[in-house]
Amino acid sequence: VKYGITRDYVLGLEVVLPDGSVVEVGNKFDSEMAGPDWGMLLVGSEGTLGIVTKAYLRLVDKPSAKQTLLAIFNSLDDAANTVSDMIASGTIPTTLEIMDNQTIRAVEDYLNVGLPVSAEAILLIEVDGSAVAIAKQAEHVMKVCRKCGATEIQAASTPEDIDKLWRARRAISPACGKINPTKISEDATVPRSQIPEMVRRLRAIAKKYDLKMVIFGHAGDGNLHPNILSNKHDHEEMERVEQAVEDLFKAALELGGTLSGEHGIGYMKAPFLKWETGETGFAVGQKLKSVVDQQGLLNPGKLFNI
């Protein structure tokens, strides 16, 4: 959360264009204003406009200290409200992750690291900086969590404890994959203030289509990862999954969000991109693609489906 996204650190790129020519784009200096920032046009284009062969990135100093906290809730809504309240309070954690009860149980069955399986939700929070700064930040984080209904807050005090918590977060995907043979992972993202409402809508969608859905994700930047656990060999169920995914996309856009905050559009979301860009925005994207890649050589079918 605190450090933003990769795009924020891209200063310049060396790119091979579809015709084989090589070009350097971007602003390697903060004050550089020599024409449009073509580098930002290529970031997020998913290889449809060129092939990146070099990247110039801005680096930041490694923080001198970190503190990892685990906040436990009896309500997923309370955990979601905590996220928006915490950001609104001015405290920006390094990391702010959310896991619902089904996710917690799946990970604990998979790893057995001592997660609170009776909790309806947990927040995994990390703050960093100087030792003095993180003490103040951690105190404020705990205050907000308690105000929003946290029943318990645990501070990881040893490297082993910290490692257990982050191993648990990294294990979510394989853990959920053991529950059902097919896992449909989405990453529709909403403004932080809309996380509580998005969580409510996700639960309603799962109920509407009678599907098993686990909810987790990078809540600090509004990037939720609803995963629908299903069986690709059950054709009737997969039809319900497709309908649920469409409803999920609509919900995110209605709340001022985006189809993807991390995974990208790729092939699967390309048919829905126009919902977000609008007809005019989509047409501009198609025109740009057709000019830069006249023969449609690079990742045909992705994004603008030309």
TrEMBL record:
Residues 1-62 form the FAD-binding PCMH-type domain. PROSITE patterns: FAD_PCMH. GO terms for molecular function: FAD binding; oxidoreductase activity. It comes from the Bacteria. Its cofactor is FAD. InterPro entries: FAD-bd_oxidored_4_C, FAD-bd_PCMH, FAD-bd_PCMH-like_sf, FAD-bd_PCMH_sub2, FAD-linked_Oxase-like_C, FAD-linked_OxidoTrans_Type4, Vanillyl_alc_oxidase_C-sub2. It holds the Pfam family FAD-oxidase_C. Keywords: FAD, Flavoprotein, Oxidoreductase. Belongs to the FAD-binding oxidoreductase/transferase type 4 family. This is Glycolate oxidase, subunit GlcD. It comes from Sporomusa malonica.
